[in-house]
């Protein structure tokens, strides 16, 4: 049975890639605490009897047997159900699903509404540390040029709301996911059909068995544009567990970018080749091709958002002085491109990133991701 001293951590998005990684990290006694004390995890699901919830429990049988993992019902649209789910929780981790804005302003979007419900429930339950997986406010970051990436802006709005309403908030900001290389928007394998088959995290190792042919990295940004990446199913959990371990006295009020060092698509292809031995090239998609691909599988609203997101990322970088960056940061008025000498998609200077100093953790490189998961770009990339 769970010990009486085990702190309860409630995880929103526990059956998704980020949340399941948080659950795994919290249930690992070597990562969960400076002492031998273990966490008790309440995984929130809108359907506790569903296949995803059952799969999460099956992945941690010892924790279930010890009373350290349970599924609790919660609906992000129903703040009262969240209050019930959060009752008795020391901490809450929240990763909300991607919800296209469908033309609605970010502050009025369903994602922002659900996020505010989570914050309101955490406040009502006197949660001691709230950890939120957010994104940058791209409308502001781009100086008002890119205003239709609703899912990014909505997450930033929720993060701001959380810091206003709660006493102890830690913000995590992930970049592009390595697992997106299973998506034909990011990478393809010669001879593949690039069907609309969805490839989940649990399938990554299986793909290695069937993979052959040349690989093309086709991220729709210029070949010299640097991007940051993350293993969202591992790194987010590692950072969240570390933030809980050091406690609010260290991690509250901090924003931690969960980002690998910035690399270009060419460098990404070179690293993939070195790690796998597979012939790899770079041939980027145009924004028009990328938009049509997303539109066909996720709808027009998602296509608009992702096209604008890549429009911001793809612009060639130019050097920017420390003085200019300071002025831009102070005025909250940013260039419509990612400035050189910054991290977290241009939102932060490297010296302001305290994640390793505070938490002692770093995001995974592509090579580490490939070794840990056995992932290979599949023949049938999903659209």
UniProtKB/TrEMBL annotation:
Pfam family, one: NmrA
Record keywords, A-Z: NADP
Entry-linked CDD domains: NmrA_like_SDR_a
NmrA-like domain mapped to chain residues: 6-312
Origin species: Rhodotorula taiwanensis
Lineage: Eukaryota, Fungi, Dikarya, Basidiomycota, Pucciniomycotina
Similarity field: Belongs to the NmrA-type oxidoreductase family.
Name this protein carries in UniProt: NmrA-like domain-containing protein
GO cellular component: nucleus
Top-level taxonomic group: Eukaryota
Gene3D superfamilies: NAD(P)-binding Rossmann-like Domain, UDP-galactose 4-epimerase, domain 1
